[in-house]
Amino acid sequence: MLVILGYLLVIGSVLGGYVIVGGHLGALYQPAELLIIAGAGFGAFVVGNNGKAIRATGKALPLLMRGSKYNKAIYMDLMALLYRLMAKSRQQGMLSLERDIDAPQDSEIFTHYPRIIADKRLVDFIVDYLRLMVSGNMNAFEIEALMDEEIETYENECDVPAQAFQTVGDSLPAFGIVAAVMGVVHALASADRPAAELGALIAHAMVGTFLGILLAYGFISPLAVVLRQKCAETTKMMQCIKVTLLSSLNGYAPQIAVEFGRKTLYSSDRPSFLELEEHVRNAKSPAKQTAEQDA
């Protein structure tokens, strides 16, 4: 939604300013120029990316129209979920988590937090490393190294569509110049026409430069920034899980481990110490918490 709003602001500001100074919108309607720029940009995208990158970019497009799903509420749900898992393992042993790990959709702990269970990437990240912790064959340093590798891999995968958008955005001003030069060539080839017609042809050619720059910096390049921001939010959740689980693995009590995880979150949405403590206290009695939510 914010992407559409931003596009409307860009179009309104540019065209509004143009009309205020007396410009005629009809002069900007140059479908041939747009075809040259958009077609060349898409062709460059196809040339510069393999099949995997093109598919990844296509899958990333719906994400651009969605708002952020990571906020204070889901952060606190994550902290409460991790607290309950660590508390159960501390009281009943790590082996007691096997059923929760094998079928999180049927787990009484996981299903209590639908916002977390709906995020397959986070659930897989949690259960995969809990499974390694249950096995008992890896120490904290080995698990931390593996977590870092997985997070880095995810960041690299996320950057593929973002880099594709960035590259196309960077190329569009140049394609706009190409369209403008071709328009100027056409105008010069028509030098025998009256001055008024020749001036109109040159003006039409200059629209190519305008469109290339506008499409690049007003429409395409910002999408790369949005995708990187969304990737950073997911990465932050994974880092929070990493720090919390490693703290528990190193012997810290569940309350201290979730506090370590809280410190990794962005300050704009990070719950306060008292907010998290209250939420975790409710997590100790999930039946009570459910009753309060229903009320």
Describe this structure in words.
It is built from twelve helices and no strands. The longest helix is centred in the last third of the chain and has 55 residues. The protein has 295 residues and is mostly helical. The radius of gyration is 27 Å and the shape is elongated.
Basic shape? elongated
Strand content: under 5%
Low-pLDDT runs: 287-295
The total count of helices amounts to 12
Average pLDDT over all residues: 89
Helix-strand category: mainly alpha
Largest sheet: none
**First-last Cα distance:** 32 Å
Radius of gyration equals: 27 Å
Q: Helix amount, in percent?
A: over 70%
**Sequence of secondary-structure elements:** HHHHHHHHHHHH
Strand runs, count: 0
Can I get a quick summary?
With 295 residues, this protein is mainly α. The chain has helices at 2-20, 31-47, 51-64, 72-92, 98-102, 114-117, 120-135, 140-189, 195-249, 254-262, 273-283, 286-294.
